Amino acid sequence: MPTWPGACGHGLAETTAVYGFGKENARFLAAMNTKGTILVVDDEESHRYTTRLMLQHAGFQVREATTGQEALQLVEEHPDVIILDLHLPDIAGIEICRILKAAPATAAIPVLHVTAVYPGAEGV
Prior knowledge:
By secondary structure, the chain is an alpha/beta fold. It has helices at 12-19, 23-33, 45-57, 68-74, 93-102; strands at 37-41, 61-65, 81-85, 111-114. The N and C termini lie far apart (47 Å).
């Protein structure tokens, strides 16, 4: 069995062994492989649109939220993964993540933080 990146064989066990993922990340990869539901939270319509198109093309079901409050409501549907913008108009993305990770029902949902702001931007 190959044990280096780029070797033949692409199973979850090989990926886990090669990259040293722990159990939580292995569950994340497994969720991604099942073509489950992804909640995309972003106040920018163009960002949600392009993300939705890519994910739907890959076979995922996509739910969308434009605010933190809407995200907290939609998370009750138990998405497999959340893609969360850090800069939302009502609640900061990091605060939403804290709320989700503090609640036993949502603590295990993987959250991927995204932002269009970069460290060198003026006013950041």
